[in-house]
Design goal:
Layout (H helix, E strand, L loop, with lengths): L7 E7 L3 H10 L7 E7 L9 H6 L6 E3 L4 E2 L4 E4 L4 E6 L2 E6 L8 H12 L5 E4 L8 H11 L2 E5 L8 H8 L5 E3 L1 H20 L23
Parallel strand pairs: 1-2, 1-8, 2-5, 3-5, 8-9, 9-10
Antiparallel strand pairs: 4-7, 6-7
Helix pairs in contact: 1-6, 3-4, 4-5
Length: 220
């Protein structure tokens, strides 16, 4: 699996019911999209996250729990660690302590930084979960950096609140099942690859030659 500088970053947020959605999405992802996937979820404070080990069973891509300062590589999955919020700056992931008070807004926090970092072609995805974390983030991602936004089709989600809140904010480009989100990402990857491989062709439009006078016509 190749590495790439400044890969397209795909931020995927979920909470309640998110494990099943994560699995279905990554099981259907090609391993060579050229994208870097950042998985954001609500982990109970003080707990150990087994998410990297669990998700590694569903893909041949490396699944890594983030360490501070880690640079993003294409065709890798990065999982937020417990008790942290995460930001992206210049293609590197940075961890900050999660506040002791207030709701967990790990998804919004990261996507806000993704929008500010202006990473080319960034994607924000909201899957199953309770609450509204991520909805404001994808709104900002769309408005400030023109990113692509997606939400899980609520009927396919175990917990519908997060997808519904994301959809209702009216900045979602695609509303799909996790499997179809994977297919949409694969299609984007295919277009990216073909644009890079196929040089632009300039078609010069030539004016048609002037009509020749019909010399068989006798002038008066």
């Amino acid at each position: 699996m190749g590495k790439a500088e400044n890969p397209r970053v795909v931020a995927i947020g979920a909470s309640a019911g998110g494990l099943d959605a994560f699995r279905k999405l990554i099981e259907n992802l090609p391993v060579d999209t050229g994208m870097a996937f950042v998985l954001l979820t609500h982990i109970l404070r003080g707990s150990n996250s087994l998410l990297p080990e669990i998700l590694a069973r569903s893909t041949r891509m490396p699944v890594i729990q983030v360490r501070d300062g880690m640079r993003l590589l294409a065709n890798h999955l990065y999982v937020i660690p417990p008790d942290k919020l995460m930001e992206i700056r210049d293609g590197a992931l940075h961890l900050v302590p999660r506040p002791l008070q207030g709701a967990n807004n790990a998804i919004d926090h990261f996507i806000f930084s993704l929008a500010a970092d202006q990473v080319y072609g960034s994607v924000g995805i909201i899957l199953s979960g309770e609450g509204s974390d991520g909805a404001e983030g994808i709104k900002i991602l769309k408005e400030e950096s023109g990113g692509v936004t997606m939400a899980q089709e609520p009927a396919s989600a175990s917990s519908k609140s997060m997808p519904i809140n994301a959809i209702q904010i009216d900045h979602v480009d695609h509303i799909l099942s996790p499997e179809d989100i994977a297919h949409q990402l694969a299609s984007m990857s295919w277009r990216d690859s073909n644009i890079k491989k196929t040089p632009l062709k300039v078609l010069w439009l030539r004016k048609p030659p002037p009509k020749q006078r019909d010399r068989s016509v006798i002038e008066p």
